[in-house]
Amino acid sequence: MAAALQHRGADAAGVWAEPRAGMASLAWQLPISLKMPDGADKSALSQLLDCNVPRSLIDRPKAGFGLPIGSWLCGPLRFLAEDLLNPALIRRLVWLRPEPVQRLWQAHLRVLITPFP
Question: Tell me: the pLDDT tens digits for 60-83?
Answer without folding.
Answer: 787 788 888 888 888 899 999 999
